[in-house]
Amino acid sequence: MEEMIYSRRKFIKTLSISVGSFLLLPRCTFGKTSAWRFFSNEEGVLVDAIVEQIIPTDEWLGAKDAMVTNFIDKQLVGPYTRHQEIYRNSLSAIQIACKKAFSKKFEELTWDEQTNFLISLEKNEIVTKVIDRSVANANPISDTDKTFIKNWLKNNFFNLIRNHTMQGFYGSPRHGGNYKFVSYRMIGLDPYPIMGQNRYKASSNG
Amino acid sequence: MANKHVNAIVVGAGAGGGVVAKELSVAGMSVVLFERGGWAKYDDHDQDELFSQRTTVLGNAYGPDNIHYKRVRMWSEGEKTIVLPNEGGYGNNAACVGSGTVSYGAMAWRFMPEDFKMKSTYGHVEGTTLEDWPISYEDLEPCYEKAEWEIGVAGDDSLNPFAPPRKKPQPMPPFEHNKEAQLLQATAKRLGWHPFPIPMLRNSIPYGGRPQCYRIRGCVGFACPVNAKCGTHNTVIPVAIATGNCELRINCVVSEINVNDSGKITGVTYFDEKNKKQTQTADIVVVAGSATETARLLLNSKSSFFPTGIGNENDWVGRNLQDHAYCGASGIFDYDIYDDKGPGASIAISDFNHHNPGIVGGGVICNEFNALPYLFTGIRPPGSARWGVEHKKFQRENYKRIGRAQGPYQEMPSFGARVEVDDVVKDFWGIPVCRISGRASIKDAEGTAFMADKAEKWLLEAGAIQTWKTGVVTGERPAGGGQHQAGTCRMGNDPKTSVCDKFGRVHSTPNVFVADGSLHVTNGGFNPALTIMALGYWVGGYIAGEWLKGNRFK
């Protein structure tokens, strides 16, 4: 896909500019290549699954195909740089929790299991549930992991990624989401008034 | 090389400052008009909802930006939070030539006579600093008229029985209602109310050498792509520049008003577009930076003559910060009432601005500006799904079926709602930033409940199948400071309980004036832009008139 090639190039560009800040990030293995600017390939798969839960595919594209992950990834090395830490850690905490409770990755859970997981996260009940389940499974969580998920599995992360998903799906395609104005077409709105040079902007997906 | 001395400096090229610069330069005075931003261009952001002046999640389209600016919010006693310009608590007004008048919704309200006499109308309200203005509606009427004709307003007040008396009609005919407003018009009449088209600083016909509005969906929050929205940037400021007497100095940030060894105010210090510190001297300094930034500049101008800042002898600068308590209702209809005719807001009722039983003040109620798709994700009846397939379905099924009516409830001024300058946090140039603290109006719970009730009644009568109230205040609300910010340099006759006199001159100086919403004693139950413009004519007209008589404000 054209967009992918574009973002990969852009990623390398971004990487060369922001090596400094990359070194400061926790749990970041430097030197690995990723299709994304901020996310690792593994994180990208997880974010795809979460955003697809927030805006699922029905007769219209869901958030994953509308390139919402691309939107979030792009903002995380731009205006949302301040959210890098919570994304990196909370995504990691989700996978630890899923491994302990289900012995699977989040994206490997059934659709309903994923939904229930996110509902519990939204209600701030996920940590207790994961601990209970890991005990029942005889798959106990180490104290380090317990502290980590207690710190990072909170509804503030859910609210953040929920808002970012809405922005990516309903905002302007120039920021990398809302692929070909899918949400506007779904609502029945014409995209921008096409005037002058806008006709070029309106057809691009940053 | 030193800057050439001028007659007057105007700080801030917004609704107030742009008008003052024009009034002074047309009178032959030499003027430097400072603006911290540059010229805003529609093409920079076109219809990008996430990067506009209304939804600012990715930044403020026309400034201020997150690199150079920040503020401190005290959400509660002793709890300091740093807020960036695109975050909710900052209370930004656009940093560009024209400021908010570039991207506003452009409602063109005259305050009502009662709005200038709130204390006389309602008596003393415990826990507030409610007071009358030192000027009346009649005093300001000619200035409203000038603002309407020189900047451009479309409207017809003869349709509003509560409209204050006027000598001349608005210069352009009102806009035709969109589908939602047509429905609400018939409904309001059935309810015995008095609906009328919202007066707008927008061209309903070609006016001022600019074209007619073509009813774009995203108007509020954006610069106009065809220049049909009337602000100071495309009217009075170009007139001021064309006189040859006014130099507009953009991307310049004024940090301090200068005082010499004998206590005389001599001009300002500013950082130019290359961030170099410079001085500009003048006979007069007019501050029009918005209620928050004007207070900040006065408070940051400390000297042995003004140890707590200019005009702050009695600790009144920055006090009485007001905004509006927006409230109303939304309703779902079982057919499409949205016809994509921008900007959405079209019809108003002024039946509930004043004399409501048991309520101090009130406010105008209007149908709302269009909510673009991201903003619409937050418009849901209580208890709705926040995400998932239900949320998505609601979005597509109801985007065109929701009607909204809202209005600005007039806040009661509160002495504790204030702007200070922080002793630690500084901006990019090292200038101490605004610190906003205190709680807003103590009367807004009753006021917002009352107005929301009327708005809901309106939508129900119009046939909404489900309605819910919005913006009803429960408990304490933190002090405002949004785009309707006002009140921090109150005008008054008594120097002990106000900052400026009735012509906007800071009581304790001969030659510093304020000309923006800071002067508002109270903020009306209306969007304040036209009143700020009218105050620009009031203050600017006074200075120019005195100057021509030989007064040099020494």
Describe the structure in your own words:
The complex is a heterodimer of chains A (206) and B (554). Chain A has 206 residues and is mainly alpha-helical. Chain A has one domain (2-202). Chain A is built from eleven helices and no strands. Chain A has helices at 2-17, 19-24, 41-54, 68-76, 84-102, 111-122, 126-136, 143-152, 155-170, 182-187, 198-202. Chain A starts with a helix and ends with a helix. Mean pLDDT of chain A is 85; it is low at 1-27 and 202-206. In chain B, the strands form three sheets. In chain B, strands 1, 2, 6, 7, 8, 9 and 17 form a seven-stranded mixed β-sheet that branches. A six-stranded antiparallel β-sheet of chain B has the order 5-11-12-13-10-16. In chain B, β8 and β9 form a beta hairpin. By secondary structure, chain B is an alpha/beta fold. Chain B is 22% helix and 18% strand. Chain B has twelve helices and 17 strands. The interface between A and B is medium-sized, with 36 and 32 residues.
